[in-house]
């Protein structure tokens, strides 16, 4: 886990810990999931709003608007992908908070809390899987990769095949866990990471060290 991710998780742990065992935790959890859901459902509106502002401020013509929209859309998808990488850890924190709340409740209260947790989990899981799929839009296509890395014909063919296989395997993982009533998001994250690590090893056999380094650093958003 990188430093930035660790800091975010520690801060969230502190915040949840302060509220744990109290009514504040339930309010906090409900607020967070509703805020997250609203944010992602309005992604298209947000993109349209940003493009509109830039169009007005920069006096963009039609061609420029199309190009700017491509960049904003792809950037939004990549940001969604980064957020999705934190969500398995967040789900673990939320589950721990529910457990701590339950410790001070009677049986009837625990039953009601369990129903609330199930609703929360269903929404959280749906948003997580949606994030994984949305993030795909931020992945550069083979044309962009070829241009950015200067691939020759043979490299292009091999890289294209590797990335297509990676996407296929990731889709199978998402479909597998999405069908489960209680998917383990940490397991989803682990399985997808394994697939990506395997793809990176294959790419290292096709790309030069410089090309691989540039690929890892990140390519243009579209």
Q: Quick recap of the structure?
A:
The chain is about 85% helix and about 0% strand. It has nine helices and no strands.
Mean pLDDT: 82
Rg on CA atoms, Å: 21 Å
Number of domains: 2
Strand content: under 5%
- Give the fraction of residues assigned to helices: over 70%
> Can you summarize the main beta sheet?
none
Number of helices: 9
Low-confidence spans: 5-28
Describe the oligomeric state of these chains in a short phrase: single chain
SSE order: HHHHHHHHH
Helix and strand composition category: mainly alpha
Count of individual beta strands: 0
**What is the general shape?**
flat
Terminal CA distance: 27 Å
Protein described:
By secondary structure, the chain is an all-alpha fold. The chain folds into two domains: 1-138, no CATH class; 139-222. It has helices at 3-19, 23-41, 43-58, 62-102, 107-134, 142-149, 153-178, 185-206, 209-217. The longest helix is centred in the middle third of the chain and has 41 residues, at 62-102. The radius of gyration is 21 Å and the shape is flat. The model is unreliable at 5-28 (pLDDT under 50).
Write the layout of secondary structure elements.
Elements: H1 3-19, H2 23-41, H3 43-58, H4 62-102, H5 107-134, H6 142-149, H7 153-178, H8 185-206, H9 209-217
Helix pairs in contact: 1-4, 2-4, 2-5, 3-4, 4-5, 4-8, 7-8
Features:
single chain, 2 domains, 222 residues, mainly alpha
């Amino acid at each position: 886990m990188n430093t930035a991710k660790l800091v975010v998780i520690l801060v969230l742990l502190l915040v949840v810990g302060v509220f744990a065992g109290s009514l504040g935790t339930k309010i906090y959890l409900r607020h967070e999931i509703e805020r997250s859901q609203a944010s992602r459902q309005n992604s298209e509106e947000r993109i349209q709003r940003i493009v509109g502002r830039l169009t007005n401020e920069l006096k963009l013509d039609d061609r420029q608007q199309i190009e700017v929209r491509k960049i904003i859309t792809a950037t939004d998808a990549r940001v969604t992908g980064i957020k999705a990488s934190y969500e398995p850890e967040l789900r673990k924190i939320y589950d721990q908070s529910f457990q701590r709340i339950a410790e001070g409740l009677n049986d009837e209260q625990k039953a009601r809390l369990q129903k609330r947790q199930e609703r929360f989990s269903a929404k959280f899981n749906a948003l997580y899987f949606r994030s994984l799929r949305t993030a795909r839009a931020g992945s550069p296509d083979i044309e962009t990769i070829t241009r950015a890395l200067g691939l020759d014909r043979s490299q292009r063919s091999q890289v294209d095949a590797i990335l297509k296989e990676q996407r296929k395997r990731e889709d199978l993982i998402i479909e597998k866990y999405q069908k489960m009533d209680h998917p383990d998001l940490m397991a989803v994250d682990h399985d997808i990471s394994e697939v990506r690590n395997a793809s990176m090893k294959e790419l290292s056999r096709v790309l030069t060290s410089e090309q691989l380094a540039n690929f890892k650093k990140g390519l243009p958003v579209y």
